[in-house]
Structures are given as structure tokens and as C-alpha cells.
Design a protein that fits this description.
Number of strands: 11
Pfam families: MliC (PF09864)
Organism: Allosphingosinicella ginsenosidimutans
Protein name: Lysozyme inhibitor
Shape: globular
Strand content: over 45%
Distance between the termini: 27 Å
Largest sheet: 8 strands, antiparallel, barrel
Domain C-type lysozyme inhibitor: 33-103
InterPro entries: MliC (IPR018660), MliC_sf (IPR036328)
Length: 136
């Protein structure tokens, strides 16, 4: 059996490494979502069974947004901290659908929000369309 050296790199809180030429990812899975406008959102969920520590890292259009669990009426919701002069963002889940929206207040989920992307989870084994194959 041939062994390969393992090089480890920490990027954005995730542990990544290379074993030979094959990338290795250790930690929570990256969950791909296909958005209605063709974009791909990649989401990493962490501590999902503990609301106090649950978080999501949403990457869309080359931008990564760190979010913490937030109150919601239905489904699951994560919300970012707003930088000065900026609006917080929210990632809301209902079943297989995720919605990224502007969330001006902690309670904005009970009123209209400005939707930025509506996406559906890509399941492994689903029909390939080229974009999803690159994210498996």
C-alpha cells in the first residue's frame, strides 16, 4: 500500500489537507444549493443540534458570510452581525429551500425582507448539470 504525505491547512475555520493530489476536507460538510438565477451557494453548518452554538457559513458570489442561529417562526434561520452602515443578512431554511435576504432587525422575519437569493439544496446523485458536479 502506498502512503501519501498529508499537508494540512486551516482556511476560514475549516480543516483542509492534501493527500497526494486529492483534496481532503475534515469538518462539517459543505452543502451546495442551486439558486434560481443559476448561482451556487455553498453552506457549512456547525453545531446544528445546539441552538446556542449553531452557526452557518454561507458562500455566494465569492463572499462568505458567518451567521449564528436566530429566532424564526418556521424552519431554521441564521443571521449575520451587521457591520457599521450595513444591513445584516439572514439565511432561512424550510425543507430543501434556502433564502438569503437582508434582515435589518432581529425580528425582521415577521415582516417583509429584501430577498437576495432563493436556492434549492443539491443532493448527491441528482442529475448533473455541470455546475453541481464541480461542488461534490
Amino acid at each position: 500500500m502506498r502512503s501519501f504525505p498529508l499537508r494540512v491547512l486551516i482556511l476560514g475555520g475549516g480543516l483542509f489537507g492534501l493527500a497526494g493530489n486529492a483534496p481532503v476536507h475534515s469538518g462539517p460538510a459543505i452543502v451546495p444549493y442551486q439558486c434560481g438565477d443559476g448561482r451556487i451557494a455553498n453552506v457549512v453548518y456547525d453545531s446544528g443540534n445546539d441552538y446556542v452554538h449553531a452557526s452557518a457559513r454561507v458562500t455566494l458570489d465569492g463572499r462568505t458570510i458567518d451567521m449564528k442561529a436566530a429566532p424564526t417562526l418556521y424552519g431554521v434561520r441564521y443571521r449575520s452581525e451587521a457591520a457599521p452602515g450595513a444591513t445584516a443578512l439572514a439565511w432561512s431554511l424550510r425543507g430543501e429551500e434556502g433564502v438569503l435576504s437582508e434582515a435589518p432587525t432581529d425580528m425582521s422575519y415577521v415582516s417583509a425582507e429584501h430577498e437576495l437569493a432563493r436556492c434549492t439544496r443539491v443532493r448527491v446523485g441528482a442529475a448533473d448539470d455541470g455546475a453541481t458536479a464541480a461542488h461534490r
